[in-house]
Write a structure and sequence with these properties.
Distance between the termini: 45 Å
Shape: globular
Order of helices and strands: HHHHHHHHHHH
Number of helices: 11
Number of strands: 0
Length: 172
């Protein structure tokens, strides 16, 4: 599997990797792919993470057990591509009221208000902040206030879209 991940992957190769690892009987291959997300070779790690972003919903559930580990990784990650991919994976996971981590809420709030952060990371952090804060009205109020603050700066279309989506959910 590692050999395949060492070069630029096409969409069909990603789909082949997803098919190869699908189903519970292939959990060992999912684990092997997950371990490759930690590889020292950046291309291998990025391609492995990219593959996980294409997992079908049934197979994506396997990653739920890695939830806290993924959060820990993204809070330490310096590579913006890896960070974007890990955040994308986390966005596909449920955030339960009992297990929400305040350190990750703080991370998301700091990232989406950082004008120097890449737009994609900021947009993902807006959505992830909402997914974690939606259980408490006082936190939603804080999120709305922070979103109001960034609405005064020029936002990319993707960031503006994330802003609108979350504002609509807050007001609902």
């Amino acid at each position: 599997m590692k050999t395949l991940l060492t070069h630029r992957l096409s969409q069909s190769e990603i789909m082949q990797l997803c098919a190869l690892t699908q189903g519970e009987h292939n959990d060992n291959l999912k684990e092997e792919l997950y371990q490759l997300t930690l590889d020292d070779d950046r291309r291998v790690a990025v391609n492995a993470l990219w593959t996980f972003t294409h997992f079908a919903a049934a197979d994506n559930g396997w990653l739920f057990a890695k939830h806290d580990q993924l959060i820990d990784r993204c809070m330490k990650e310096q590579d913006t591509t890896k960070l974007r991919l890990i955040l994308s994976i986390l966005l596909r996971q449920p955030f339960e009221e009992e297990t929400v981590r305040t350190d990750f809420i703080d991370f998301c709030l700091a990232r989406f208000t950082d004008a120097r952060a890449p737009y994609a990371i900021r947009a993902l952090c807006i959505k992830l902040a909402y997914e974690q804060m939606k259980y408490w009205s006082e936190l939603l109020n804080e999120l709305r206030q922070m979103l109001d603050l960034i609405s005064n700066e020029p936002l990319s279309p993707g960031l503006r879209s994330a802003w609108r989506q979350v504002m609509k959910k807050i007001k609902a």
